[in-house]
Design goal:
Elements (H helix, E strand, L loop, with lengths): L1 H6 L3 H5 L1 H17 L4 H6 L11 H19 L4 H22 L5 H27 L7 H21 L5 H18 L5 H20 L5 H17 L2 H18 L3 H7 L11 H22 L7 H25 L6 E2 L13 E2 L1 H21 L5 H24 L7 H25 L1
Antiparallel strand pairs: 1-2
Helix pairs in contact: 3-5, 5-6, 5-9, 6-7, 6-8, 6-9, 7-8, 8-9, 8-11, 10-11, 11-12, 11-14, 12-15, 12-16, 14-15, 14-18, 15-16, 15-17, 15-18, 16-17, 17-18
């Protein structure tokens, strides 16, 4: 029933926005009038029973109406609107069908993503066909949008409650609108390779217990967007951090557990940790794509150095923490006084050395993959990584725990690394 109601979004491309608004009004009226009985039980979320009102369905329809207004009164493509609504509705259906067979969390996520992506592609294709637009030539971009939306929706549903589908609808719709505006050019073969490698890496990270389900979905979405909007070079830099950083978490894990400094969940990193380290890199990728498409008046290579600077910081900080934490007698970076292992802002010379090596790894990979990064560019990336790692330690010693959480510190540190990288490029390369 929920999927069938979502299918009514096709009224917009079929009969126009006025008919679509009338359909939405009828559904809203029905959701308000129905207060009990079999139909209420069919459509009710658990929280709806307290007031005998279908609040879940009402808020979902209102979220759909908000997207519909963006599609009719703003520049959001109608195909994105329809694809988003069908993605969430049929994704839910796919997950529930899988749940009848198994309660395995990964299998349920796969069921949601596959069904959601197929429904989103179908919705976009039908809308484009009704509008007289090309369908076959646009298939790669439609699949890219559908896959990106499915991963984001699955991630949000893992982090939020099932009744938060309106938030999922709005978030997915806005992301797909942004991606559609960037107009990425990608062939069918390149897209299939990107999807296959992305999903394989995501599952491997979960199987090796270096990421939780939410962390896996976050990483998969970031890698897919980076690969399509940036290219395989950007993909290699990002994956080097995920791979080396994830494995470093397992370094002498039992010893770190005894010291009380090991990552929770057997070292599996969640979405907050992944986003804290990679959110700045994602913004840099989006900035690069927007600049390359002429939407931003900046040199695309500035965003490349912001990207590599943030990843160098994330790599430096991760290796410094995971390797340096097993050595005795760390010292607080602000006073150089000995502190207990695991103290925020505590550093060891072994950890600092590991952090420098991490930044150098990113610089070497970038030098080999990007013509814009020469020997001087590599030095800038290493310097940015060290600067960001130092900012992380300083924030840990001063603000972490009282003002900032670990994810906030990671975000500000990677932002510092990106800014240092850009400033050095502007001063010594472009200047």
């Amino acid at each position: 029933m929920f999927a069938a109601l979502c299918t009514l979004s096709l009224a917009v491309p079929l009969a126009g926005p006025r008919v679509g608004a009338a359909v939405a009004g009828i559904v809203l009226l029905g959701a308000y009038v129905i207060t009990d009985g079999p139909l209420f039980d069919l459509l009710a979320y658990p929280g709806d029973y307290e007031d005998s009102r279908l609040y879940g369905l009402i808020t979902f329809v209102l979220a759909a109406v908000a997207l519909g207004l963006m599609a009719t009164a703003a520049s959001m493509p109608v195909a994105v609107f329809v694809g988003t609504i069908l993605l969430v509705g049929y994704g839910n259906l796919g997950e529930q069908l899988v749940r009848l067979r198994t309660d395995g969390p990964v299998v349920r996520v796969v069921g949601f993503c596959l069904t959601a992506a197929v429904a989103a592609v179908a919705g976009q294709a039908i809308t484009r066909s009704l509008a007289g637009d090309a369908v076959i030539s646009a298939l790669p971009i439609m699949v890219f949008l559908a896959a990106s939306g499915a991963f984001l929706a699955a991630l949000l549903r893992d982090m939020l409650l099932r009744s938060d589908d309106p938030i999922v609808v709005l978030s997915v719709g806005l992301l797909l609108w942004l991606l559609a505006e960037l107009q990425p050019t990608i062939g069918t073969t390149e897209l299939l390779i990107a999807l296959a490698v992305t999903v394989a890496l995501g599952y491997t990270s979960y199987a090796l217990e270096t990421a939780s389900i939410a962390g896996m979905l976050t990483g998969v979405l970031l890698v897919l967007l980076t690969t399509v909007l940036g290219g395989y070079g950007w993909f290699a830099v990002l994956v080097s951090f995920f791979a080396i950083g994830g494995l470093s978490t397992k370094f002498r894990y039992e010893e770190k557990t005894e010291l009380g400094v090991a990552e929770d969940n057997n070292g599996a990193r969640g979405s907050g940790n992944v986003l804290g380290n990679a959110a700045v890199a994602l913004v840099a990728v989006l900035g690069y794509a927007a600049s390359d498409a002429g939407l931003l008046p900046h040199e695309p290579e500035l965003f490349l150095f912001a990207f590599t600077g943030s990843i160098a910081t994330a790599m430096s900080d991760t290796l410094s923490s995971e390797i340096g934490s097993v050595f005795d007698r760390p010292r607080l970076i602000t006073t150089l006084k000995p502190v207990e292992p695991g103290t925020d802002g505590g550093v060891t010379w072994q950890g600092e050395l590991a952090g420098i090596v991490g930044a150098a790894i990113v610089a070497i990979i970038a030098t080999g993959l990007f013509p814009e990064v020469s020997g001087g560019g590599a030095t800038i990336i290493v310097a940015a990584g060290i600067a960001g790692m130092t900012v992380d330690s300083l924030l840990g010693a001063t603000l972490e725990g009282s003002v900032l959480g670990n994810q906030g510190v990671n975000f500000l540190a990677t932002l510092s690394g990106a800014l240092v990288s850009v400033l050095l490029v502007v001063t010594f390369v472009l200047g």
